[in-house]
């Protein structure tokens, strides 16, 4: 069995979100539970129908066990791979494999966090710091600042280019009533924002929000008999080259350069076929790096590629149409929200930000400090 064998074998039939933005008074698990119940209902199933559980959280040592207990499930198969924010794109692949093998019949992929109301700080203490401790880094921000600085030095990328990423995200968020950060934003405001870790300012950093998301997958033959429009799994691949940023082989090239081509091959599509690109924009430099590494522009051209509204509403390439982690939602791990927006777009449920004739969406997750990368491609029935 290879990646191509999984094309169209499963479909997302239910999607749910809860607590996006601020949800005071709710624990991470309570928010996860709300999203899970919405996803199961959206799928036209009952909670007892779920016999596969895939979960990763930043709040639980044993996330799948905690989810199973909280929801009262008795799954036949469960998986708790946690490679950071890209875990959920990997879970789509794992769930598809489990469904195809007959290990489960209805798979729940879920995540929840109350990061904002529980603490509200964009600081990771999970990053190995023994190498960098004398330099007093502020991880994860400092790690991404290193990548941004290197990209500027090698390719002439400018802070103005990073600003174009933030402005595009806000423009999309202004079309999304669920986005946490909405309202006018100018390039002057972005450029004059408080510096956090040079060259990344406050406007280059993702939000710190609450939020939960969940989706339900079944085998493709069953999906046709459920009430919602199925969104089919077309292909996915993961890659990782390091854990700590100081061990990253090349600060300007991520493992997406490996995961992306494999995912495209498995899905049988190319960059020109993609209608919506959802990349994990924890920081503005991420969008530039991933557009390069996924082949939407040549290496080193990402900064110039995003100029002049090219990835904003009305631009050449629809990128992060929900507003992304920069302006929509970012509750610690963002990967499942990439999937939620892709599903909304393919189903035609994205409202004012809807992309016309959207049939194929790419979701690219990132975990750690540019550490784990996972690319997943989803599509409508018309492209199978």
UniProtKB/TrEMBL annotation:
The UniProt entry, under InterPro entries, shows:
Thiolase, Thiolase-like, Thiolase_C_2
Q: Which domain of life is it from?
A: Bacteria
Which EC number(s) does UniProt give? 2.3.1.16
The main enzyme category here is: transferase
**Transferase as UniProt keyword:** yes
Q: Which terms does the record give in the GO molecular function aspect?
A: acetyl-CoA C-acyltransferase activity
- Sections of the chain in a coiled coil: none
Do you know which Pfam families this protein is assigned to?
Thiolase_C_1
For this protein, the record's SUPFAM superfamilies field holds: Thiolase-like
* UniProt keywords, alphabetically: Acyltransferase, Transferase
Domain Thiolase C-terminal: residue ranges: 239-379
Q: Does the keyword Acyltransferase apply?
A: yes
Q: Show the NCBIfam families listed in the entry.
A: PRK06158.1
What is the designated name of this protein? 3-ketoacyl-CoA thiolase
The record lists the lineage as: Bacteria, Pseudomonadati, Pseudomonadota, Alphaproteobacteria, Hyphomicrobiales
